[in-house]
Amino acid sequence: MLFIEALNRASTQPNEKKLISRAKYRPVISNKDSVDLSSAAHQVKEIHLDSQNKSPLTASTSVFANLIEHVLSHLINSNAHLHSPEELNLDTKDWKLFLQVPPMTKEKDNKSVEYVAPEVLQRPPAKQLIFHIPVKPSYGIPVEMTVLLSPHNGSPEAPSIFYTSPKENWLPVLRTPYPPEFLEQQITHYHILLDQDGEPDQLSPLYTHINQSKVMGEDSFSPHTFGLRIWRAKNNTLTPVVLGDSQIGLLFVGHFKPIEGNPISEEERARQASNLYTKA
Prior knowledge:
The chain is an alpha/beta fold and 280 residues long. It has 6 helices and 12 strands.
């Protein structure tokens, strides 16, 4: 289970703020709930994650990460394990990960009015998947939480799980070391989006920073996780929370704050400053 030891210590800090908001369960989420429908929604946006731009791990983050881990283990029929950058000692290194956020909505297919498509067997549309998870505190009765998993609207092709899996799923108990008072104050419904549009080695910038004993190789991981990307919809933007890689496995990055655009190198910054000085 992810982050338990570190977050037990974090949860004992007196200044920790507890989440008290509860998300209502909604089986169908409209686009307005999670995506920006402006013209920019049809454009690929570049973002990057910076090792220096993150929030501290908290017990609430642990609950969210473990829910994702629980769902993925069910989907790939294997024990999925989410690493944290802290677990891999990446929090002491300087690194950047570059990602492209695909369009949030699909471009409409503008076909001629006269065009008549031939009659072919159409694949049924990808469906949203609902996972009911009883989350067990250290003592007492479980708290039911739900995860709504949607295909990414901007993805070229939805993964097969959105066609083959049941729409509604009841998972085994997820056991945690947290007291019931803490779990009762957590968000009980999450909406995440999944695609497999990343490169199998999308975490390659991190390889040189990781102890080689931690890099297990692709034979140790399910191929279903290669190039996997899980996003959380927040404030009309998609934030990456899990990235799958053939060498590292699954990396949780939900506490890193994405930065739009590419960072400017020191050389480029110096060149721009020189140009400004020359013009002046």
